């Protein structure tokens, strides 16, 4: 599988604990706002299909995202930030998200290194808290 531009980490906890810790970390950060949560497993079940636990949480900080969109609006395709939590057939739980440095190159963002690095650091800390 080609995972260019995606950072994935294996969780040391079960699916529900990992997802709840992720959600708690985001909710308890006054700079972040959850935009939407999507349960792909529930959606699959609604049409009679099976899927391992798979949920995505979308969240953002307009103070960081807006300057990036002012630089190039097309990054709105990848904002707000998203973190996917999923469990494979062997029961391994992972979290994955778009690498901000990849998004910088993908969308040709210029002169925003401080914001990109801040986002990258935040995503790293958020996901480490969720999987630890």
Automatic annotation (TrEMBL):
Domain DUF302 intervals: 39-100
Superkingdom, taxonomy of origin: Bacteria
SUPFAM superfamilies hit by this protein: TT1751-like (SSF103247)
Pfam families: DUF302 (PF03625)
Matches recorded under InterPro entries: DUF302, TT1751-like_sf
Protein name: DUF302 domain-containing protein
